[in-house]
UniProtKB/TrEMBL annotation:
Domain (DUF3786): residue spans on this chain: 27-197
InterPro entries on file: DUF3786 (IPR024264)
Protein name: DUF3786 domain-containing protein
Organism this protein belongs to: Desulfotignum balticum
Length: 211
């Protein structure tokens, strides 16, 4: 649901004004976006969004949630001048400048998935596939692992171990080192939150919402 609070509307309009002042024609390949006139098209997870000078829309013409709007705008604003292909995997807490957001990332991204899918491995796999996730073998012992292309240059990896007689269910979300070149730490944390919300069913009609 789109937030109507005045402060969120002001932030939204400020971001749009800043993006409208950019010339991203020469960054299309670097960011994996498409620029046609004043329209910028960006894939986000398994959807495509259009950024116009005065609004952001999904493929059905709806304004996305505030968090998604912020992530898309920051991706355009912070994009580097040259591509970065360092795909070394890192935990969120290992990124420089992540410290203020580590607890929030755990509480809004990793723990919700752990709680939602304890004993429900098949449901988690359904959710991962629904969001365009690709099964991956990361060389890590786990019950399930998937890679998601949140943005063309920002991938997030889910590693899940279900509960057993000794340990509770556990979800770890990893990023590639290059992600920090394309987004700040707050936006990377929000990507984890968006993934958790969608996996838990908020935007997935195939998975029942938890009580």
């Amino acid at each position: 649901m789109t937030s109507k609070a005045p402060v969120f509307e002001k932030i939204y309009q400020d971001y749009l004004a800043r993006v409208a002042g950019l010339d991203l024609t020469n960054k299309q390949d670097i960011l994996g976006i498409r620029v046609e006139g004043q329209t910028i098209t960006i894939p986000f997870f398994n959807e495509t969004f259009s950024v116009f000078p005065r609004k952001i829309e999904d493929h059905q013409g709806r304004r996305p949630p505030h968090s998604v709007c912020v992530i898309l705008c920051q991706y355009l604003l912070l994009g580097p001048e040259a591509p970065d292909e360092d795909r070394q995997l890192k935990t969120y807490r290992d990124f420089k400048d992540a410290a203020p957001y580590v607890q929030g990332f755990d509480n809004t991204a990793q723990k919700p998935v752990s709680r939602a899918f304890a004993g429900r491995l098949a449901a988690l796999e359904t959710g991962c596939r629904h969001l365009g996730g690709i099964p991956g073998d990361l060389g890590i012992s786990c019950d399930l692992s998937y890679m998601f292309e949140a943005l063309p240059r920002v991938r997030i990896y889910l590693i899940f171990n279900d509960a057993d007689e000794d340990f509770p269910a556990d979800c770890s979300l990893l990023f590639e080192k290059q992600a920090a070149r394309y987004l700040d730490m707050e936006c990377l944390a929000m990507i984890g939150m968006v993934l958790a919300e969608r996996l838990a069913g908020k935007d997935n009609p195939d998975i029942a919402m938890l009580a």
